[in-house]
Write a structure and sequence with these properties.
Blueprint: H1 2-19, E1 24-26, H2 28-38, H3 40-61, E2 66-75, E3 82-85, E4 97-100, E5 106-119, H4 121-188, H5 194-229, E6 237-239, H6 243-247, H7 252-256, H8 265-286, E7 291-304, E8 316-326, H9 334-400, H10 406-440
Parallel strand pairs: 1-6
Antiparallel strand pairs: 2-5, 3-4, 5-7, 7-8
Helix pairs in contact: 2-4, 3-4, 4-5, 4-8, 4-10, 5-10, 8-9, 9-10
Length: 444
């Protein structure tokens, strides 16, 4: 209940906060915390938990006293006629039938009935099953939190990568545009060939087109992040955690330490499924057992030829107290086959539990391999970027000094932009691989 209150308070306060200012700043940790309260998936999980809690209370109530009441009123527009032998009346002819009316024209009554379950094997199993279901709902919320955390890390980094790519391309396009203007001026004075100008113009157009593509990608990435966080798509936010900090989101010791797959949320969910199927089998077995309940009934009835039930009409009480036992005797082997099916489900869930444990270990090994490959690519792309940057700067200097051609400059520029793009992508891939490894290790 406290968690639900926090969710409601968060839903009320956050939109006010966002509306009160033009832009809201989020660190990565703040974005994750915000999503854990406001994302649609987490809010849905809260609803599922609340429904499960209500189901527990509903099931427990079956074993508590059940009290019902009713009121009835009947008005015979035509009173039933019965025939009796004539000798029922003094002096009557026994060979004749006499028509009589025993039923008064109107009757009214009310009753209160109480039932109490004393023993029912299915009820005992049901009370255990709903608690297991509540536990399942809570564990599914934990799994959703892991998935949301993983998604926010990746999307947060994706937006930063898109922004970085846009900034680099914009700066490159601006620099190339300035170089083109200088070269055009030199060409008009006859110092540079027209082909050099055309070559640079082609490079400028290509780079500016990449700038526009990067801007669109930035908008798409931001919208996906806003949606996942549970924010309106027209919200303005600032992401203040640098990309380098996200790369170092977890230390090496966190990624290489010992791992117990039984603590993984997927394994715990598989355990929950096994317990659920075991309880289903117990419920089928409980169908062989008798059930016992007690009941009490109190009634008041009145009959009259006129509607005077609230006046001087006589009321006649009736009370009844008893117990009822239902004993299963024979169901044409239906119960036997139901138990057999339930036992098969238990065996399947047991096998699935073993498979889940092994699958988790495979996923961890695979995630570690992807992480180390991404780390190698990141280091290599960083070195390549430094080299291509030096080559590009030297080539630009040589071009301005007239000892290099526009073709050489264009090649160096493309090489630099490709290296920059590779480095940005390798940075994101490293973050993505590390986040997936943390998810596989269940260490968010």
């Amino acid at each position: 209940m406290e968690t639900l209150k926090k969710v409601l308070i968060g839903l009320l306060l956050w939109p006010v906060s966002l509306a009160a200012q033009d832009s809201t700043s989020f660190t990565l940790a703040e974005a994750i915390d915000f999503a854990k309260v406001n994302s649609y998936a987490l809010r849905d999980s809260e609803f599922e938990i609340e429904k499960a809690k209500r189901l527990v209370k509903e099931t427990l109530a079956i074993g508590l006293p059940q009290i019902d009441g009713s009121v009835s009123y009947n008005n015979y527009l035509e009173v039933p006629i019965q025939q009796i032998p004539g000798d029922f009346v003094p002096g009557g002819n026994p060979d004749e039938l006499i028509e009589v009316q025993f039923q008064p024209e109107q009757n009214m009554g009310f009753d209160i009935t109480a039932n109490q379950l004393i023993f029912d094997g299915s009820y005992i199993v049901a009370t255990k099953s709903v608690r297991v279901f509540l536990e399942l709902s809570e564990k599914l919320k934990v799994k959703t939190e892991y998935e949301i955390t993983n998604a926010i890390i990746q999307l947060y980094a994706q937006v930063l990568v898109a922004q970085e790519n846009y900034d680099v391309l914009t700066e490159s396009a601006k620099s190339l545009r300035a170089t083109l203007e200088e070269t055009t001026a030199l060409q008009s004075e006859g110092f540079v060939a027209e082909q050099d100008v055309d070559q640079l113009a082609l490079l400028v157009l290509s780079t500016e087109n990449r700038v526009r593509q990067a801007e669109r990608q930035k908008g798409v990435s931001l919208n996906i992040l806003l949606f996942t966080m549970g924010l309106p798509l027209d919200s303005e936010i600032d992401l203040v955690t640098p990309l380098d900090n996200i790369v170092n989101i977890a230390g090496e010791e966190t990624l290489v330490g010992d791992f117990d797959f039984t603590t993984h949320i997927d394994y715990q969910l598989a355990e929950n499924q096994l317990r659920t199927d075991e309880l289903k089998m117990a419920n089928e077995q409980a169908a062989y057992m008798p059930s016992l309940s007690a009941f009490y009934s109190y009634q008041q009835n009145s009959q009259s030829n006129s509607f005077n039930f609230f006046g001087d009409a006589a009321w006649f009480p009736t009370q009844l107290l008893g117990v009822r036992m239902n004993v299963p005797i024979f169901a044409s082997f239906g119960r036997k086959n139901a138990v057999a099916q339930a036992r098969i489900n238990v065996d399947q869930s047991s096998m699935n539990l073993e498979r889940t444990g092994r699958d988790i270990m495979v996923q961890v090994q695979q995630a570690r391999a992807y992480y180390y490959q991404a780390l190698d690519n990141y280091v290599t792309s960083e070195e390549n970027l430094e080299l291509s940057s030096r080559i590009n700067n030297k080539e630009l200097t040589k071009y301005k000094e007239g000892i290099s051609t526009s073709l050489d400059l264009a090649q160096a520029q493309r090489q630099f932009l490709d290296s920059q793009n590779d480095f940005i992508n390798s940075t994101y891939n490293l973050i993505d691989a590390k986040s997936n490894l943390l998810k596989a290790l269940n260490r968010y």
